Amino acid sequence: MMVAKTVLVALLTFFLVCGFFIGIGYMFEIQSLMFSFYEETPTGFTAGGSVLSFILGLICSFFVGNFYHKKMTH
């Protein structure tokens, strides 16, 4: 049961951090934090976007998950 809670905390942290950075990216128009699956252009469409928010979310969820697990075991 404790492993499930650790995974849930890490997953929740991932979504919150990703949402926070993507929101900041769109609010202040920071291209390196924005994520768009596709954009229509006059010549067609382009797919892509920055994955920096997701990388930061993974890093934060790793550290928060480990911290939570160590705190619960001691």
From TrEMBL:
Keywords annotated in UniProt: Membrane, Transmembrane, Transmembrane helix
Residue ranges of the TM segments: 7-28, 48-68
Keyword flag Membrane: yes
Protein's UniProt keywords contain Transmembrane: yes
Domain of life: Bacteria
Protein name: DUF3955 domain-containing protein
Taxonomic source organism: Alkalihalobacterium chitinilyticum
